[in-house]
């Protein structure tokens, strides 16, 4: 039985409601040959749109049992077109909803990425704390190999307060393996004054090559006189000579105890920079006897010349 809604569609095609599918197709083709805009002109567009709509409704019913909802849409006035109801129009109408969905998904993705990054940072921080704790624990070991392993692990973290305190504790031990001490010197450098002071207290236990490298590294410090003073008691004449050569121009000469100890030494390589320093800064009056003795008895002519120059410049004679 043909629904009432379809009877008007059949009449529009000029066929009876009881017509079969072949009759419907024939009627539509016949009308298309006469009413299509390409044949009848643009003014037939509205008429052909109604015919096409009726044909599609009948086709839907006969082939799939779909019943059209409501009557045929009225034709628009001549010269106008029906509102767009195709895919383009539906896509345009759905665009705000799609944009909102895209934005929501983007926000969710960003939130998820942020959570993952924060989780990775937390894990990294926890891992670093665990690594630091392990290295500091190994640094307290009595075995030099274990301590060296810990120092390697702390090489990139020397500036951290916990590491600095641990290195200070390490340097305050009664005895240190030379290899460990050398590695600490390599790591610390002259920038950390507290550690440098602790190192200077262990002058006699530091190898000459390491001590020489450390003294030379102090060259850039303006107030280095206090850090250089302990190195004046090193057993190596090269280290002492380098410390004297690095003595700041604006600083007073070394203290009396250091001067007395140095004037009793006999190495030419050490005495020349010492006498140059005294010539620049001035020698104390108590040193006249030692200076005159050097000016007369020392086997090196350069030492004798510099000693006489210091005595005469300071009017110590």
From TrEMBL:
Residues 63-109 are annotated as: Disordered. InterPro entries: Diphthamide-biosynth_chaperone, DnaJ_domain, J_dom_sf. Coiled coil: none annotated. PROSITE patterns: DNAJ_2. SMART domains: DnaJ. Residues 91-109 have a biased composition (Basic and acidic residues). Residues 8-63 form the J domain. SUPFAM superfamilies: Chaperone J-domain. It holds the Pfam family DnaJ. PANTHER family: DNAJ DOMAIN (PROKARYOTIC HEAT SHOCK PROTEIN)-RELATED (PTHR44240), J DOMAIN-CONTAINING PROTEIN (PTHR44240:SF10). This is DnaJ domain-containing protein.
């Amino acid at each position: 039985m043909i629904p009432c809604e379809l009877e008007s569609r059949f009449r529009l095609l000029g066929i009876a409601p009881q017509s079969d599918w072949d009759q419907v197709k024939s009627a539509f083709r016949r009308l298309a040959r006469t009413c299509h805009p390409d044949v009848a002109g643009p003014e037939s567009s509205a008429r052909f749109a109604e015919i096409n709509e009726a044909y599609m409704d009948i086709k839907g019913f006969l082939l799939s049992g779909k019943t059209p909802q409501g009557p045929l849409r009225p034709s628009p006035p001549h010269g106008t077109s029906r509102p767009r109801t195709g895919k383009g129009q539906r896509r345009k109408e759905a665009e705000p909803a799609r944009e909102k969905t895209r934005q929501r998904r983007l926000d969710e993705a960003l939130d998820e990425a942020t959570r993952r990054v924060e989780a990775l940072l937390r894990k990294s921080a926890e891992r670093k704390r665990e690594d630091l704790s392990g290295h500091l624990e190994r640094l307290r070991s009595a075995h030099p190999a274990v301590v060296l392993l810990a120092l390697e692990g702390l090489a990139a973290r020397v500036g951290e307060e916990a590491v600095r305190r641990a290195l200070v504790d390490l340097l305050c031990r009664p005895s240190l393996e030379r290899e460990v001490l050398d590695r600490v010197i390599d790591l610390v450098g002259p920038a950390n004054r507290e550690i440098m002071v602790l190192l200077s207290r262990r002058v006699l236990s530091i190898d000459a090559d390491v001590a020489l490298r450390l003294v030379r590294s102090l060259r850039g410090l303006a107030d280095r006189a206090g850090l250089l003073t302990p190195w004046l008691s090193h057993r190596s004449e090269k280290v002492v000579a380098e410390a004297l050569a690095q003595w700041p121009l604006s600083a007073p000469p070394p203290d009396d105890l250091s001067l007395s100890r140095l004037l009793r030494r006999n190495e030419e390589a050490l005495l020349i920079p010492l006498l140059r320093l005294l010539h620049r800064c001035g020698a104390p009056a108590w040193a006249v006897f030692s200076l005159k003795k050097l000016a007369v008895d020392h086997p090196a002519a350069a030492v004798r010349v510099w000693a006489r120059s210091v005595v005469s410049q300071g009017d110590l004679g």
